[in-house]
Amino acid sequence: MKQADTEFQVGIFAAGEDSNLYDYKVKLEKIKNELVKFGLTHNQAKIYIYLGKYGPKTAPEVVKSLGMPRTETYFILNTLQNKGIVTAEFSSPTRYMAIPIEQAIYTLINTEKENLNILASQEKNITEMWKEVPTFAVETTEIKQDKLQTMEGTGQIYSKIKDMIRTAKEQLVIFGSEKDVSRFYHSEIIEMMFNSMADSRLIISPALQLPDFLNEFDKKRIRLIPSEENSNQCFVIKDNDEIMLFLRNATHPSHSVFAMWSNSKSLNEPLSKLFEYSWESSQPCY
Question: Is the pLDDT confidence value at 8 over 50?
Fold first, then answer.
């Protein structure tokens, strides 16, 4: 048997660095990580990719090829069918096949949209029921306690930042790399910030020139820092009383952002001073 045939039988997922299939394995790992963002688990994405690249397979074939537990494999295959991205043939034994990737992504996106629409439609009912139940908290004269919340993933982090922007009264500032700002822009965060009533300013570091996608905004409120020293720094401050500090920003090798929100003055004050110092020493864009 030729080496290529042997490698094909072993499978892309098992390919080592010395294999001709290793480059394909790396690409599929990236695709798997992207599919997870559409609501699949890692093993669900792995099975979908396997069926998509190796064609229709029976459940025992999937178990043998991917080395996954039998019970979990059957459960995942049923789940992927329910999600509409895997179909089953009327044969004995049953063979499963993945729908084309374009259709799968379209289906997953529409599913998420439908789930959001359902949640949105239930908001009024939930709010009304909440108001019907009395509050039993006892008012005290205790000093306001600092709060801290850690978040992972762009979804909940960006949602929290948008809430900060909506409730800002005096000032909004963002300090981040061009990659961070690009993500903020495509998530409509930059537009929301500059359209808010609060005094909004943005520092991009490192950057030598203004990114094209920011040309539509007031350049007097944007400044650049060419130094590479701040490439891993990113934070958002609202009214000097709320901060979103990225512990892993868009430049992190994992590409998975991780951040911490807090209303602590001990965190807000030094970072606010850092922003003001950076603003004074940065380069204008006009």
Answer: no
